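Entry 14. Ran structure prediction on the chain below.
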Amino acid sequence: MHSRVAVLIDGGFYRKRYRVVFGQYPDDPKQMANKLYAMAMVHAGGRDNLYRIFYYDCPPLDKKGHHPLTGRAIDFGKEPQAKYMNAYLEELQKKRKVAMRLGHLGGMGHWNIKPDFTKDIVSGKLDPTQLKENDIIYDMKQKGVDMKIGIDIATLAYKQFVGKIVLIAGDADFVPAAKLARREGIDFVLDPMWQNIHPHLMEHIDGLKSSGENPAKRTTKKP
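Output, structure tokens:
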């Protein structure tokens, strides 16, 4: 059995959980990329054991539009968050043994009020005229990412490139691929970054190991 380890990372999930586990994004996107790389190396047990880090994400939306509330012209590809994302992806590309698996963002063509504000409007707690620009977001969906994860898991398993796969993700879309990998004798470990998973998912993995400090146990330091 191969002793090498492949670490597969759902980038959208990692970026979402980063704020919960580690706090706000660092000003320098390189630090965020370094944190991810360090997580992967811990799972691999060192560079000698690492087969490759597969990173799945989408570059920022390259589209122009107008905000429905303010009428402000927006070039999504030049917004501060897009520039940060591009710099972050560039830092990951520089790292040894990292394979980028990028899908694309599809603009749905319409804007949505954030869910929390929608509830308040429907319940009468919030006057819609009090909404601010950041309360309304453009609807975007990832395309191609889940398929790439599934294909890579199947390839790693069938070709026996590794003996262990660590997946950093949080939903159940991986289950069919995980079952396939386990049938091929691969040790399959899930890292949900301390997010709760449904109990039935445990039967489809070989281990559960979260990265970073458990945010539920984080204590506030006294001044």
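The chain has two domains: 5-103+144-217, 106-142. Will compare against last week's run tomorrow.
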